[in-house]
Specification:
alpha/beta, Rossmann fold, five-stranded parallel beta sheet, two-stranded antiparallel sheet, disordered N terminus
Length: about 475
């Protein structure tokens, strides 16, 4: 499968999972064996019935997989690495034969370091030795010591800058590289999905927990930066658990905090959280399963004659379902018609599998009964479009070329697909016409060969950033992104 197509698939994974459940798809033809690796997130720790409520079981049921769950409560990355490199282990054959492998790892690396850090700090405060095990037990106790909890909470915020945190992150990075390398050695054809990390306290609005919230948000970002960086090698795909849980309608975690004597610092997702994680994993699997579609013969429009510069792009877009012609019976595509913002949202919504979405969030200038309601609501929910500063969306407004660049870069950035390429736009004579808010996105789009400039009769290429993007141009842009070499 082409490299750039894989890149967009990763983007679409994020677009779909950010809004939750996606309609069920047929079982993947070549993905029948599933192995889950990692920690208590994969074991379903804390659930009433992990065998039915855990995300691993939910994924297996959705996809019809034969599943081997090798996850272990409390496992850190070095323990997962030891498992996947032990060729004498009875589980090695399951790993070597798996079609799909999910990995949840990294949280315990930092938790263990946190307990070490707190033990050191609390020992200094008390003047007597305190072990990391004691700290872990105290924070998980049903009847916690309020004085101890009050002393520990401010210390947690300082953990991010500690040597223990730095050492844990460095070790995790090295171990994750080793885990992926070992899996690819044992099973080069497996689809490997790495779940990124979340902040289990993000739904608690209590000033006493603010230091904990800050510390775990920083930790999640640090771990996710390492996970995303590794995905750039195309050896695995990131499942954006952080995104889907952060955008949840209700609290997807067990953690709660009423007072210093009435709290639950359990970091695990509840049953609702596991449903969201399962939906995210299923969305990635459903999108990665299809092969790169090739245009089929017989697709044609009366206003798209052979020989036009846009012919191949429009034929590709129609044959792959990326874009369609008008449904008025005219058999026309409207290649030179301006693309509207609502139409652009619809194109991406269609590629993402048309997931259901709550249209009640639509701005006042969008009619919830119009054809564009679900696509626009979805695009705003996943932040592919951000709307105008005045709170409107402008569904019928023309999509400018610089807006198109921003929308596609937003999509790519959601999951961590590489959006670092940049180029100097000064080579284009109209570079000064680029809006400040769009210059970075256009620089990325040009550097990534998504936008190549509009060629004038004298051979000069202009960006024409403020001009409406035509339907033919968007077809070419999407072909460059999805099917470009």
């Amino acid at each position: 499968m082409r490299k750039r197509f894989l890149g967009l698939l990763s983007v679409l994974c994020a677009l779909v999972l950010a809004v939750g459940f996606m309609p069920a798809h047929a079982q993947a033809a070549e993905a029948e064996s599933y192995v889950a690796l990692g920690d208590s997130i994969s074991t379903g720790y804390g659930l009433a019935d992990p065998a039915t409520e855990g995300f691993v079981s939910l994924v297996a049921d959705q996809q019809g997989y034969d599943t081997t769950n090798l996850a272990v409560d409390g496992a850190a990355s070095y323990e997962v690495l030891a498992l996947v490199t032990d060729i004498e282990n009875a589980s090695y054959s399951a790993i070597a034969g798996a079609d799909v492998i999910t990995i949840s790892v990294g949280g315990n690396d930092l938790l263990n370091a946190l307990y070490m850090y707190l033990a050191d700090q609390y020992s200094t405060m008390l003047g007597v030795p305190v072990t990391p095990e004691l700290i872990a037990t105290a924070l998980a106790a049903e009847d916690p010591d309020p004085d101890m909890v009050e002393a520990l909470l401010p210390l947690i915020e300082q953990f991010a800058a500690s040597q223990q945190a730095a050492d844990a992150l460095a070790s995790f990075s090295q171990n994750l590289t080793g885990i992926i390398g070992a899996l690819k050695t044992a099973n080069p054809d497996a689809t490997i999905l790495v779940l990124n990390q979340y902040n289990p306290f993000s739904f608690i609005d209590n000033p006493d927990v603010a230091p904990v919230n800050t510390a775990f948000e920083t930790a999640a970002n640090a771990l996710n930066g390492i996970i995303s960086a590794g995905a750039g090698s195309s050896t695995y795909t990131v499942v954006d658990v952080y995104g889907v849980l952060s955008e949840a309608q209700n609290n997807p975690f067990n953690a709660s905090f009423a007072s210093m004597t009435d709290f639950n610092l359990d970091i695990h997702p509840n049953a609702y959280g596991h449903q969201l994680i399962a939906a995210a994993v299923n969305a990635v699997i459903d999108i990665l399963t299809p092969e790169d579609p090739d245009p089929e013969p017989g697709v044609g429009f009366v206003d798209v004659p052979e020989g036009e510069w846009f012919y191949n792009a429009v034929m590709w877009a129609a044959a792959t379902g990326t874009m369609t012609g008008y449904d008025d019976g005219s058999n026309t595509f409207g290649p030179n018609n301006p693309m509207t913002r609502a139409e652009m949202a619809t194109v991406l919504h269609r590629i993402a599998g048309e997931p259901a979405v709550d249209t009640s969030i639509l701005p006042d200038d969008c009619d919830p009964e119009e054809w564009y309601a679900a696509p626009v609501a979805w695009a705003l929910t996943v932040h592919v479009f951000n709307g105008y500063d005045d709170g409107t969306f402008g569904p019928d407004a023309w999509l400018t070329r610089e807006q198109a660049a921003c929308v596609l870069m937003n999509a790519a950035a959601i999951l961590g697909v590489d959006v670092t390429p940049r180029t100097d736009l000064s080579a284009f004579p109209d570079a000064d016409a680029v809006s400040d808010w769009a210059s970075d996105s256009l620089s990325w789009a040009v550097a990534s060969h998504i936008i190549n400039g509009y060629e004038l009769e004298d051979g000069t290429r202009e960006l024409q950033p403020g001009r409406a993007c035509t339907r033919a141009e968007l077809a070419g842009l999407m072909m460059n992104l999805l099917a470009g070499e």
